[in-house]
Amino acid sequence: MSEYKLKTAVLGLNDPGQLLLTAASRTGCFEIQAVADKDTHLAEKLAEEYKCNFYDDYRQLIIQNQFDCLLVAAGLHSCDEHLRTAIKKKFNILKLPPPARNFEEAAEFVQLAEAENIKFAVANPARFDQNFLALHDSLQQGSPPAASGAFLITTFYNAGEQNYPAWYTDPELAGGGVLLHNCYHLIDQILWNFPTPQQVYSLNTNQASDKKQRLYMTEDTALITMKFSDTLTGSFIASRRMDCGPKQEILKIYGRDKFLTISDSQLIVSDASGQINKKFQTDDNALNCTMKLLENFAFSILSPDTNKLCSTGKENLKNMAVLESAYLSARTGFPEEPGRILQMAPHQAGTPANT
């Protein structure tokens, strides 16, 4: 592999953006040339720390520079047009989830990246977490794989005590609420291990006091039912209300002779009677997983023939189609089909690609 370092900028210096910045600087694959944030003081402070240029205008960052790649943590409502400009300037893009506010926007980014022959990747650090990797391996073991014997998937997510910017509650700016912004990584894990659901039915609500107000706020609580096949179904419960207790994530997969539970940074494999057969627990943290993700992204650019990009924009269209189906179902009151939404993409979506 070449010793060349990718000329890189970070767009958006919120907590996830700062994690990207720290991880990128530690991989040895990136040369941080600039950072940008609407908070001038924060951008200047971090630029001094990382010895790079700073901007408080996203447009100026992009039009005044030529980078190899752009790491995007800023909300799309503040930089969507600038992101399109970056793609047209042939910047490889790594976007923190969600990749877009809706399926149509995500498909547009994928199409633009394909046209410019650059990478458009979505940061899914859980794919590099040892517990989730153990889950993936467990489901792929055997012939047929254990995933084919599963009959039920249940997921529970509670955001716990977190503060969110005001734009998170605005459907026009955010696109969606707890499902899109808090649960994207869990949706990704389900679709990384199982086929796209045939049907999705969803009920969404929020803490607004009356029905009219609820129409103008993103959901903070949601219930999804998914039909994958005649023999496999799934349920997904999510909430980010402040009064719902501590943060909690539980993903369970029930099979004919065993079931898998991933929670609290551990994976438990149990038999049909509930007896624990295996328990995996690692000390992987967000920084380590993000570094692995960024290394994969960098190597896919520097040595594409021998390094496959793990989480392509095209592959993530499956996630966006399921989310789009959930939001559409909440409005229509009927089950919706992600496959029909995937057909709206310019090219066959949901398959591995270089973008």
Break the fold down into its secondary structure elements and pairings.
Elements: E1 6-11, H1 15-27, E2 30-36, H2 40-50, E3 53-55, H3 58-63, E4 69-72, H4 80-88, E5 92-95, H5 103-116, E6 120-122, H6 130-140, E7 150-158, H7 171-174, H8 178-182, H9 184-193, E8 199-205, H10 211-214, E9 221-227, E10 233-239, E11 248-255, E12 258-263, E13 266-271, E14 276-281, H11 286-302, H12 317-332, H13 338-342
Parallel strand pairs: 1-2, 1-4, 2-3, 4-5, 5-6, 7-10
Antiparallel strand pairs: 7-11, 8-9, 9-10, 11-12, 12-13, 13-14
Helix pairs in contact: 1-11, 9-12
Order of helices and strands: EHEHEHEHEHEHEHHHEHEEEEEEHHH
**Outline:** globular
As laid out across the biggest beta sheet, the strand order is 8-9-10-7-11-12-13-14
Name of the CATH homologous superfamily of the largest domain: Dihydrodipicolinate Reductase, domain 2
Percent range for β-strand residues: 15-25%
- Class from helix and strand fractions: alpha/beta
Roughly how many Å apart are the termini?
Answer: 20 Å
Would you give an account of this structure?
- The strands form 2 sheets. Strands 8-9-10-7-11-12-13-14 form an 8-stranded mixed beta sheet. It has a 6-stranded parallel beta sheet with strand order 3-2-1-4-5-6, sandwiched between helices.
- The chain starts with 5 loop residues before the first strand and ends in a 13-residue tail after the last helix.
- Helix 1 (15-27) crosses helix 11 (286-302) and helix 9 (184-193) crosses helix 12 (317-332).
- The chain is built from 13 helices and 14 strands.
- With 355 residues, the chain is of the alpha/beta class.
- It has helices at residues 15-27, 40-50, 58-63, 80-88, 103-116, 130-140, 171-174, 178-182, 184-193, 211-214, 286-302, 317-332, 338-342; strands at residues 6-11, 30-36, 53-55, 69-72, 92-95, 120-122, 150-158, 199-205, 221-227, 233-239, 248-255, 258-263, 266-271, 276-281.
- It has 2 domains: 6-96 and 120-125 and 288-311, Rossmann fold (3-Layer(aba) Sandwich); 130-283 and 320-341, 2-Layer Sandwich (Dihydrodipicolinate Reductase, domain 2), CATH 3.30.360.10.
- Helices cover 35% and strands 23% of the residues.
